[in-house]
Amino acid sequence: MDSTEFFQALFTSALDLLSRREHSCQELRQKLRSKYPDGDFEATFDRVLVRLQELNYQSDKRFAEVFCRSRVQRGQGPLRIRQELQLRGVESALVQGAMDQMQEEVDWYQLALDLLQRKFHRPIDSAATREEQMKERARRQRYLAYRGFFSDAIQFALAELDAGRSQ
């Protein structure tokens, strides 16, 4: 396959991937490299990427924004979202911009409380022994920490659920 055909094949494959969902540059590179292991991949991919960006078909900024929104809808917190974006090769400045935008749109404290309510439904049983209460509290903290919430939001959600003041 000559370089023009290789460029066209890469471009078409990239368009196919991008037509399904947004992809970061790194994700595209990994997926296309596995599909086309031969040829002058790096140089050709760089040309394909420039063309995709010129046409506004690929944008790491747009990817970060869409990714953040989808993860918030899944109930993930800011720490986890930031980490996943970094794992997908999005530049720190773009990650920070997307997270700043989410900060304006999302109440992380309320999101943590909503998740806790859905998962556990009620406060920790006050009739349980002190040890059982501590274990249950730790279990709830781990649940929110795994989902990527800051300790402030975790403590807020636990306190609100235990106080029965949740909305």
Automatic annotation (TrEMBL):
* Domain RecX third three-helical, first and last residues per copy: 106-158
The residue ranges of the RecX second three-helical domain are 59-99
Compartments reported by the entry: Cytoplasm
Query: Which keywords appear in this protein's UniProt record, sorted alphabetically?
Result: Cytoplasm
The RecX first three-helical domain covers which part of the protein? Answer: 12-47
List the Pfam families hit by this protein, alphabetically: RecX_HTH1, RecX_HTH2, RecX_HTH3
Residue spans making up a coiled coil are none
Instruction: Indicate yes or no for the key word Calcium.
Output: no
Entry-linked InterPro entries: RecX_HTH_1st, RecX_HTH_2nd, RecX_HTH_3rd, Regulatory_RecX, WH-like_DNA-bd_sf
Summary of the function given for this chain in its UniProt record: Modulates RecA activity.
Q: Which family does it belong to?
A: Belongs to the RecX family.
Q: What is this protein called?
A: Regulatory protein RecX
